């Protein structure tokens, strides 16, 4: 959680947004996937998506820190459910 929060904060302080297809993006990731067929993976994040990801990582980190001593029974199940919900939130915010 904290590593993801640090990575998202690093993208947040990035000085200039990238430009892809005439639109301004905060972060762009391009990776050739099947170059033989001209297929590549391209992901882009705008300012609102970045804000949602930072808030998700921040709230996830707070949930882990607050529950560190409070959850005594079935801790693995609690953290599994927490990561599942956070994964769903990130998938919906992107």
Written description of the protein model:
This protein is an alpha+beta fold. 54% of the residues lie in helices and 22% in strands. The protein is built from three helices and four strands, in the order H-E-E-E-E-H-H. The protein has helices at residues 2-12, 47-67, 75-93, and strands spanning 18-20, 23-25, 27-34, 39-45. The strands form two sheets. The protein has a two-stranded antiparallel sheet. Helix 1 (2-12) packs antiparallel against helix 2 (47-67) and helix 2 (47-67) packs antiparallel against helix 3. The longest helix is centred in the middle third of the chain and has 21 residues, at 47-67. The radius of gyration is 17 Å and the shape is elongated. The two termini are 17 Å apart. The model has no long low-confidence stretch (mean pLDDT 80).
Briefly summarize what is shown:
With 94 residues, the chain is of the alpha+beta class. It has helices spanning 2-12, 47-67, 75-93, and strands at residues 18-20, 23-25, 27-34, 39-45.
- The side-by-side strand order for the widest beta sheet comes to 1-2
Please give the largest β-sheet. 2 strands, antiparallel
- The whole-number mean of residue pLDDT values reads 80
User: Based on helices, strands and strand pairing, what is the structural class?
Assistant: alpha+beta
Number of helices: 3
